[in-house]
Amino acid sequence: MEQFRILKRYQFDRTVFGPTVVTVDGNKMLDDESMGCLRYLCSYCDIFKWSKCSALEPVSPFNYGRLVEQCRGERLIKARPYSHFILHLRYMTYEQFRELFSEATHIQLGFRMIRVPWTRIEFPKLVRLIPIFSGINFHY
């Protein structure tokens, strides 16, 4: 899709359509006006411009440094649909983790936390943590 336009008389009502979370992202063709139309249509939806980290392929633990370089400072960090991207935290330093997620507001990844030497994890700006498997984000 390259453009999205809608007459201003149409708008989704959360009380009618329920509190379902809707995220629109990953389309680098949509212009600012289209994004504005989507936000007007669904004011409770999460609408993001295209991001280089909105459809990540699984990354080998040996390439976590490259992942941090690519995605630090991004608000949306999300696995490509059906990719089952699980971040194995024992192969990442705490500093890398903090740097990667310091600005992230929406995350859709799995996390595996086995033999992780840290005592704390933080997502300082997190709004939504979306599971990649049915209801599961963290594996202990």
From TrEMBL:
This is Uncharacterized protein. The lineage of its organism: Eukaryota, Metazoa, Ecdysozoa, Nematoda, Chromadorea.
